[in-house]
TrEMBL record:
InterPro entries: AAA+_ATPase, P-loop_NTPase, PTPase_dom, Spore_III_AA_AAA+_ATPase. This is AAA+ ATPase domain-containing protein. It holds the Pfam family PTPase. Keywords: ATP-binding, Chloroplast, Nucleotide-binding, Plastid. SUPFAM superfamilies: P-loop containing nucleoside triphosphate hydrolases. The gene is ycf45. It comes from Actinocyclus subtilis. GO terms for molecular function: ATP binding. The lineage of its organism: Eukaryota, Sar, Stramenopiles, Ochrophyta, Bacillariophyta. CDD domains: AAA. Residues 122-261 form the AAA+ ATPase domain. SMART domains: AAA.
Length: 456
């Protein structure tokens, strides 16, 4: 991989005692950002960890020295350096005076997207997920260059904070022949997205950090016009988007559906379920786990449907080795629908997850219960029909045994309203370290989901 960073252009705008320490630093190529806070020592953050740069304390003069050498700060408290990809963000006090700076190093890395080259050539829309600082902006900058230069497509970048193409009216060479539309204020990003399609006839639109409902709606509108989308958003995985109502439209939206008795029986589910509302705006999703290890969902529609139904889904794990060789592995992920929303408040109006469909009563055994799948389970049922539990076991294809003796049981399962009142049973379970699980209703679906969460 080739790296273009123009680091010297950033360093020459910093106080001399910081420049001196960084110019010949052994980890200079691994520098992520430089932090200057009033009254504290300057700090450099590398991929390997943070390190102080000097014993000298940052003063007002040091901050003033840097701010006068860069462009003016925008309403988002961000500034840049002409013809570079570096970004300087400021922290202000109550009087609106700058008392802290974060100088992030911007790099154009050529070859970083070789791991997903085939996905770009497919012409499908790509959504890239990852937590802040994982390198999403660097990735889409390289995607823009490859699509525009090597695949000769008409590419428009909607550059809200000038992070993709740099803080200058002339875009950085890292985006190749792609064109860039700047956004004056963050709240206008969705309007510029639509304007780009209507005015400039792009084949590909690239958006960094989709974060609001209006932007998600604009992305859907663009997708319906037949334009390929490449976008990024914050989140570790697809489940984060399902739990985020303002962004769920990116993956088709989620709606509450009430099934008829016959349909619920045919599916083997409860009557009230969550389903995908429409076709996803993005057909492919990529989770950036580590710099050289990405999880790829080749069919977002199927992945979302599997997650909502509690079925297992298959995803790709793509890894790039030191010799730039890509290895692809397939991983089967067993997802429990209830676990997605167990601690979520986003869908409170749909289903009250504060009273979960199953609960562990004796919390001190929670750690022990995580290892149940490694043991032979003997189930003691309380206020539940043995035939109902056997049917749930049969549905999952498990080999579990029922017992009538509490002393021999590995776990206890019963109805919540009855188990809560049986203090004697809870005391005995506590003495023998037997986890107690409850379900709200006497239904095959709830027992199945409970057993699935314990075993799978």
């Amino acid at each position: 991989m080739n790296v273009a960073e123009d680091l010297d252009k950033l360093l020459e705008n910093l106080p001399f005692f910081i420049q001196e320490n960084l110019k010949n630093h052994s980890k200079k190529d691994k520098l992520i950002e430089i932090v200057m806070d009033l009254g504290r020592r300057p700090e450099a953050r590398f991929t390997t960890g943070p390190q102080y740069l000097s014993q000298k304390i940052i003063s007002w003069q040091d901050i003033d020295y840097t701010t006068k050498r860069i462009s003016e700060f925008s309403d988002e408290n961000r500034a840049g350096i002409e013809r570079t990809l570096h970004r300087i963000s400021c922290i202000r006090n109550r009087q609106y005076l700058i008392n802290g700076l974060t100088c992030r190093v911007g790099r154009a890395i050529f070859g970083t997207i070789s791991i997903i080259r085939d996905l770009l050539e497919s012409g499908q829309s790509l959504l890239i997920l990852g937590k802040p600082g994982v390198g999403k902006t660097t990735i889409i900058r390289e995607i823009a260059r490859v699509l525009a230069d090597e695949m000769e497509k008409r590419v428009i970048i909607v550059d809200t904070s000038n992070e993709i193409a740099g803080d200058s009216d002339v875009p950085h060479s890292g985006i190749g022949r792609a064109r860039r539309m700047q956004v004056s204020k963050t709240e206008f990003q969705h309007q510029i997205m639509i304007e780009a399609v209507e005015n400039h006839m792009p084949e590909v639109i690239i958006i960094d950090e989709i974060g609001t409902e209006l932007e998600a709606l604009a992305a859907r509108t663009i997708a319906e016009k037949g334009v390929q989308l490449v976008g990024t958003t914050h989140g570790n995985c697809l489940e984060n988007l399902i739990k985020n109502p303002s962004l769920s439209d990116l993956i088709g939206g989620i709606q509450y559906v009430t099934l008829s008795d016959d349909e619920a029986k045919r599916r083997g589910t409860q009557k009230s379920i969550l389903e995908r509302k429409a076709y996803p705006a993005f057909q492919i999703a990529i989770e950036i786990n580590k710099q050289n290890s990405w999880t790829v969902h080749e069919n977002v529609k199927n992945s979302i449907d599997s997650l909502l139904r509690g079925n297992s889904s298959v995803s790709q794990i793509r890894q790039l080795s030191i010799n730039e060789k890509t290895t692809i592995k397939y991983k089967k992920l067993q997802k429990n629908f209830l676990s997605l929303f167990k601690n979520s408040n986003n869908f409170k109006n749909i289903i009250q997850f504060n009273s979960n469909n199953w609960t562990i009563l004796n919390q001190q055994n929670q750690i022990k219960s995580r290892n149940l799948k490694t043991k032979k389970l003997l189930i003691y049922t309380y206020s539940l029909s043995n035939n109902l539990v056997k049917e749930a076991v049969y549905k999952l294809g498990l080999k579990l045994l029922l017992t009538k003796e509490i002393k021999k049981a590995t776990i206890i399962i019963g109805l919540k309203k009855h188990l809560k009142q049986n203090l004697k049973l809870k005391k005995l379970a506590k003495q023998r370290n037997i986890p107690i699980y409850t379900v709200n209703q006497s239904s095959v679906y709830q027992v199945t989901k409970l057993l699935q969460s314990l075993i799978c």
